[in-house]
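*** Backbone structure tokens ***
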Amino acid sequence: MRLRDAVATARRPGGRARVLPALTADLPWTMTMTSDEKRCWSFFRHEVLPGCLEASHSGLWEQVIFPLSAVEPAVYHAVLAFSAVNHHIHEAGQLAIPGQDLRSTWHGFALVHSGRAFGLLQRRAGSHDPQLPPVLLVCCLLFILLELACARYDDANTHLRSGLRILHELRRGGPGAGCMDPEAYPIPPGLLEAFLYLDAHSAFHGVQEPFLPLDQQFHYHASFEARLCTLPFQTVQQARQMLHSLVPTIFLFLERCWSCTDVDRRHQYPVLQPQQHRLLSCLNQFGVHWTMFTQQTVSGTQDPSSRMVQLAHRTFTLALKTCLHPPGHPDLRPLLGEYETLLSASLTALTRPDLVGQRPGPLHRGIARFTPDGTVCAALSFLALRCPDYAIRARAIRALRDAPRAGG
């Protein structure tokens, strides 16, 4: 299938138009595009970008990645590569699985443009251009997302380690500088948040040395708690960003608890339990603000972004409440209703009836896509691995196997 035909099939007849910011109005566009590149770029703007804006720090895509792609050839080619892989997912109806042989027109297109981006970056090695660090990090971020979408987790971790090394080298102020202080880095804050977010996720697929140790993550929470008390969010996007800022600490804490043996867990309980309580307190504060916000808004919690915030909050809360017990512990039996509620919310998120006027049902084959957010998969994976009820585990596993995994 030619790229022209593939893009044509991606358009969904009768679907709602996606609302996009006016990203191209004032961009100093410098790229000369082939016809195939134009089609791939159009797919990125109209299909990939909206999901990225919903799933992560919107300022990162609107104010950093998209503008850089208009003036930096390396970023431009990396964007095309990421877009091409997403188009393959869109056509296939699901993400790749580890070890799968990925051969398609779109993957060939992605390989070509990844190589061009690498070549352009290598030519600038050793340059003192102040614009180079953001370019390197944006390309690195796009390569991480590309490899995750292809289920090549080792390659994604390699790119992630490279990006974190760049962040270490860029940090100003020497060893005493605050690792979580955006002012310590000569890059847009959204880039730092994106790498910390991905670094936290990597704890579950083979990376043992986080960029920021767990104890330093908790040190940062003093500022988080102060912001949560004084700056209630006004939009769903603000709420999502606030919740995402907790993710690195929550994921590293869960990884530590879940990797402990029963003996180690009992031995470390005096340290782990106060940390668990502190994180649950943060989530409780967030929940209070979220309830107030939804009561004051017209749409309430009906839109997809709101449901993802609710699902993430419910997943993190239940995971933290239960993380100091093994999955089969009798003390978890009274919480079975919460596990069932989480499963129901996850399955509802997978139906996505709000999209393109579809009737409720399994997620349509034609709208699968990879985004930087893994909310639905995180919820179902938690249920599949940690729920004390094996019937709920089986339903979560079935949902993970059957779904296109559009949520990450």
Q: What stands out?
A: Confidence is low (pLDDT under 50) at residues 1-25, 353-368. The radius of gyration is 21 Å. The CA atoms of residues 147 and 156 lie 5 Å apart.
